[in-house]
Amino acid sequence: MGGAAKRFPPRLRVPSKPPLRLTTNGTFRYRGRSTWFDIASAWSVGLDIVRIRGLLSKRRIILRFSDHAFIEARKDGLTAADLRAACERGEVVEDYGPRALLLHFTAEDRLPYHIVLEYVGRGRFATVVTAYVPDVKEWEPDWRTRRKRKRR
Which of 53, 132, 136, 143 is the residue whose CA sits 20 to 30 A from 33? Predict the structure, then answer.
């Protein structure tokens, strides 16, 4: 048996600074390669649609579509231009933290449709997660309010 003896167990490497820390105001911060990112603010504050629209118009962030959003939009006859129009001019119906449900209508026949837009913190992308034409059975006639589910 030649060779150097193996140590068991191997030494555990302890980072000099923990990657996650709690700040004095109660939010968590995560350390990236060179800077700290505020985690809790993206989830607690919600989606700032006015800010996102400004960043999109100035081309500081890029709007992208998930595969799911593109497939679902095509099923309902929606185009990429319709999805972009909803991001630029749609009305926020529900807020899910870093995501929001937006309502918009097609230009040609005023068909209502919803998109879910996601933007987290200081990211480079705003993403359309899904897009669909709302179902009459699930939404009130104003397309902004969900119907109450009947209990069985």
Answer: 53
